[in-house]
Amino acid sequence: MKLLPIHIRRFLCVSVLLIAGLMSTQDARADIVTLNANDNGKQVQLNVGDQLILRLPTISPRFGWRLTQTYPGQLTVTNTHSLPGISSGVPGAPATFEIHFQAVGTGGLDLALVSAQPGSGYAALGGFFHVFITIDKPGVAKNVNITEYGNHSRVKVNQGDQLLIRLDNTVGSQYTWEVLPLDDSVLQLLPTPAEKPAKKPKKRKAGSEDDVTFQFQALKPGRTTLRFLYRNATSNEAPPKRDFEVDVEVPEPPK
Fold first, then answer.
1. How far apart are CA 128 and CA 111, in angstroms?
2. H/E element holding 80?
3. What Rg, from alpha-carbon coordinates, does the chain have?
4. pLDDT tens-digit profile of 6-15?
5. What torsion do the CA atoms of 166, 170, 173, 177 make, to the nearest 10 degrees?
6. CA gap 136, 47 in Å, rounded
7. Using CA atoms, how far apart are residues 201 and 220, in angstroms rounded to an integer?
8. Please, how many CA atoms are within 13 Å of residue 85, restricted to the half-sphere of its CB?
9. Are 217 and 165 in contact (CB under 8 A)?
10. What does pTM read for this prediction?
11. Are 112 and 128 in contact (CB under 8 A)?
């Protein structure tokens, strides 16, 4: 078989290398995920490096939205500005407040926002927006945190991930959170880690707000529902004050 001239062979080799480089660059390219008011309450999956754009309606370009908390090491705000009203996905909204985020670390979080001024969230949302975000990185286990904002929601965690449920409690109250029996072949309840004694322990005032945390480990693929009741610890006959539940899916690992 007759060989091609050397300059053509060199050109073909360089072309193949360029195409392979472009394909690998495209594979590594971060995604841009855009949400608006219609996505309220949904679960969103991101990977480390992805960008998240959130567009919410407001009554005026002078008013916006603010985060209920920050998410250091997981989600970083990179930019905010106003857009025409229709961009929020709500017809008739006078203006849209746009927020850009960067996914910088693995984890799961309740992304909750409230209108910056009373009444500035526009009637379609009532001044509150919430989505549940999970941020993955291939081969890296993550901690997924859920608060009471995530009540009656669904969450997907990978095998090996840890799931932390943080529920509101009142110091000195007779009521306490109780986890109901679960399918421990899918999720395992981990023992509460012992707190290191502080040199000067803080006195918690009766009636003040406090969190209680339940920690679970995702053992194998499957589905289960976590259920909690806020019950009177001194009376089994007293009805629970409130409840909390979340549906959990552990998908099959990729082959």
1. 11
2. strand 75-84
3. 24
4. 544 454 444 4
5. -10
6. 5
7. 39
8. 13
9. no
10. 0.62
11. yes
